[in-house]
Every structure is written in structure tokens, then in C-alpha cells.
Amino acid sequence: MHITIIGSGNVATHMAAALKNAGHRIIQVYSRDLQHAAMLAYHVGAEAIDDLEAIVPNTDLFIVSVKDDAIVDMVKALAKHQKLIVHTSGSTNLNDLLPFTHKAGVLYPLQTFSKSKEVDFFTVPLCIEGADEAITADLKELAATISNNVYAVNSANRKILHLAAVFACNFPNYLYTVAQQLLASHRMDFNMLKPLILETAQKVQHQAPASVQTGPAVRNDQETMNAHLQMLNNQPQLQEIYTLLSQGIIKNNNGGHGDK
Amino acid sequence: MHITIIGSGNVATHMAAALKNAGHRIIQVYSRDLQHAAMLAYHVGAEAIDDLEAIVPNTDLFIVSVKDDAIVDMVKALAKHQKLIVHTSGSTNLNDLLPFTHKAGVLYPLQTFSKSKEVDFFTVPLCIEGADEAITADLKELAATISNNVYAVNSANRKILHLAAVFACNFPNYLYTVAQQLLASHRMDFNMLKPLILETAQKVQHQAPASVQTGPAVRNDQETMNAHLQMLNNQPQLQEIYTLLSQGIIKNNNGGHGDK
Predict the structure, then answer these.
(1) A210-238: per-residue pLDDT in tens?
(2) CB within 8 Å: B111 and A195
(3) In the CATH scheme, what architecture does the domain B2-153 have?
(4) A250 reaches B (C-beta below 8 A)
């Protein structure tokens, strides 16, 4: 396929690279910032542009990977080309695009991307949605060229997925940061915690997370929890987080059991 | 070494197996529950006992891996054998043992263990502490036979580590559970989130977690955060968790920057 990439952020960068590797041709990369466009365009052999008027019409697909609140305006501007337009957002409804074009769809990668870290895109779950069945089928076919995990997901469920991803990725990463800061404040090395972090994520690849919950809360070990709260005495925000998450674990555990 | 294991929980089980694999001889396994003792004893070729009076004296080391509030009583009972006694707890001070024996130490594995999941013990960080330098040296030597990550850590720092481990392991695992439940309540498969969970943990093996923070909070994307809170309308406890953790991310981010 001939593809035009709108945006040059982390998702645009990783998806464009995967598409190029799969044999598609990236025609142009648009960004408001020409330097950003140029960086990505260079990697995927495309032309960099910072002016929507410079878009060439010989493309099959626009992939709009910009901030959520800029998606609709971008679709408005691109609709005149009469080509398929997809966005890559977890939380933007497909319906928001339909007033401007019926050739619309979604290609949402359920992964966390950083520019500095390579990702094997074939492992990335790709959630697709098309404005009609033909578009859905086309997107399924395209998605299958870059990922082994393609799911048809409607807009309502995609929003749930996006919310779940915040709990499964963004919040754990913040808690890693808290742990790292606790260690740093006592001159200990974050390396000590890395095997634990990895094992915790690896465990739930094959077992339900509730069934492998460990720690003082699931044992309802009040003495240890109180001692921990004491240690966080000068960090009331962390105390609140500790209390709330421990309560959640205790409440969950009253319905089941785990390795304590 | 000839070793006696006191306890039959997850830590006792994994550590006993690692010690046996390293060529040490596990003499006896004690548990109040003889069946539990027997299961572990069978795997490591030891005798199972449920009576402290049945302990044989020809051992070099007692490893006490019982609930925190039972450690001191156990050490009291074992001290008469005049052998080295170590506990495996993150939050129990070495000083608590010294009134009963000076041959005391700590062998704290900084990892999450489940009976149903194998762990490569050589990757497990082992934190050691001895009541004197000779004991510390002996424990370091012993620890090096089963782990490639041996750290000398005093009791105060071990408590910090244990607290940090709650943030880095127990709480993220609970958040995985929340994500899984959100998906389940909309008939979606937890498998969709597994690559994201793994990648999030893998990222911080090589980069500081704050530098790879993603999601709506680090972008200060109020619209998405409000939409998420709306979706959690009937789960006030999850709303509270969402708000607190997002505030933490926003606050952290005001000091630095990341991949948004």
C-alpha cells in the first residue's frame, strides 16, 4: 500500500517503521514541525512536509497519529482527498470522523512506545475498526502484515482497553518510579529491583494476576502495613496510595485466594 | 553445607530447591503442617518433621522462613542448638534475634515467588546481613552459590527495599488485576494486555522509569483523564486510585520530561 503518515510522535514512528519493513511504501510524513517530519521521513524513505497543501494525492491511506484533540480537525482537512483515513487513538470514537468522511477507520496499537526503545511490532496487539465491513476487512488485512495480534474492537470497547492500559502500564510504571526514588533516597541501586519487576510482569503472562498476588496486603499483615505507612511519614501522598492499593488487594482477596 | 529449613511457604520452597541444586544437603524440613513439610522435603530429599523436638543437631544452618510474627519465637526455640540461624524476611530486624543468639543473620531474596511458577534463582537478588563480619562473610559465600546478585544490606535499608518492592511488585500486580477485571466486565480477553505489561517491565530494565512514562497523566491530558473517571463512575475506589496515581505522575513530570 501507499501510505501517508500524519504525525511524527512515538506511535507514528514505530508504526511507520513496521509498515515500511512489511513492504508498504510510505509516501509522505506530515508534521507541523518540519524537523520532526524529516527525522521520521528519513528513516522510512518518505518526503517530509509541514504544509497540508503539499500532500500528494497518490496514496491509499492516511494514518493520523496526532494528539487526540487534533484528530478531528486533521480529518476535516484530509477528507477532500477521498482516501481512507484512520486514526491510532485509544480514546477517540470512530463516529467523530463520520461527519467528514465515510472512508474512516481505526488502527490502535495497544503498546507503550518510546522513541529510544525498539519494539517488535509483530507482538503488538492491533485493534482495528472500520466504518463499514469492507473497510474493516481491508484494515484487518493491512494490520496482519505488521502484527500477529489483530483484534476487531469497536469504539466503546477500545475506550475500555485504553483505560485498562492506563492501569496495566502507565500506573505500574509510575509505581516503579516511586520505588526507584525510595531506593535512591537511601543510596540504593534500582538494579536491585529490576528482576522483581520483570518477574512480576512475566508471571501474569501465564497466570491470572489475582492468583499470584503476594505481599503484606494479601496476607492482611497489618503490622507490616503499619510499619510501611510509618516509613512514609513525610510523604502523605505515598501513604494515601499505599493505603488505597492495599485496601484494593484486601478487598479482592476476600473473593478468592492466592500465593500469599 | 548441611541445612535445616524451617517453614514450607513459597520462599522456603524456592530457596531450598536452589540450595539443593547448588549441592548443599537439606537435612530436615520443619512445618507445623506435616503434609506441607513432606511436600517440600520430598522435592529436596530431606526428612519432614512437624515437631521441633525432632530436629537433629548435625546441621550447619537453620533457615527460618516463617511468617514475620513467628520468627522470633522460632529463633528462641532453635537457639539451644548453637548453630547459625538466618531468617528470610524483608521487614524483620536482625537485632530482634540477638537477645537469643549471636549466631544470627539474614538471607532475604528480593523476588516474588509462587509455588506454581519456576524462578531462575541465580537472577534473584539476595540481600545478606550477619551479626558479625565472619557471619556476613559466610553468608556471602553461601549466597553466591545460589545467586549472581548478592548484596550486603543492613536491616534499615532492607526495610526500605521491602517497602520499595511492595510498590514495584505487589501494587503493579494488583493494577494488572484491575485491568483484567475491566476487560472481563466487557467480555474482552486479558491476553490483549499481556504484551503491554511485559514491555512496560522490560523498558525499565534499561531506562529510568520516569523517563519512559507514557499515558494521559504525563501529557496532562485532562480531557482523557476526565473521560476515564467518568467510565469508572460506579467504582469510586478505582476513581480514587486513578486520581491519586495520575496526580503523582503529573507532579513527578513537573520535575523532568519523558516520552509522552
Answers:
(1) 999 999 999 999 999 999 999 999 999 99
(2) yes
(3) 3-Layer(aba) Sandwich (3.40)
(4) no
Q: Find the CB nearest A188 among B157, B231, B245.
A: B157
What part of B 13-72 touches A (C-beta under 8 Å)? Answer: 67-69
Looking at domain A160-253, its CATH architecture is Orthogonal Bundle (1.10)
Examine the pLDDT at B114 and tell me if it is beyond 90: no
Distances (CA, A) of B113 to A247, B33, B204, B206: 22, 20, 21, 23
Pick A54 or B112 by higher pLDDT: A54
Chain B residue numbers with beta carbons less than 8 Å from the beta carbon of A200 are 112, 168-169, 172-173, 201
Give me chain A's average pLDDT, please: 95
Spell out the domain ranges in chain B.
2-153, 160-253
Task: Reduce the DSSP state of residue B88 to 3 states and report it.
Answer: coil
Q: Which residues, 6+ apart, have CB-to-CB distance to A256 below 8 Å?
A: A210, A211
Q: Is B151:A242 a contact under the CB 8 Å cutoff?
A: no
- The answer on pLDDT for A114 being more than 90 is no
Compute the distance between CA of residue B240 and CA of residue B244 in angstroms, rounded to an integer.
Answer: 6
Global confidence as pTM: 0.91
Whether A160-253 and A2-153 are alike in CATH topology: the answer is no
A115 touches chain B (CB under 8 A): yes
Cα B84 to the center of its chain, rounded Å: 23
Chain centroid to CA B80 = 29
pLDDT of residue B255: 67
* Amino acid present at A99: P
Longest dimension (CA), chain A: 68
Q: Which of B177, B183, B244 to mutate to test the interface with A (most CBs of A within 10 A)?
A: B177
CB-based contact (8 Å) between A255 and chain B? no
Mutate to test the interface with B, among A197, A198, A221, A252 (most CBs of B within 10 A): A197
ipTM: 0.92
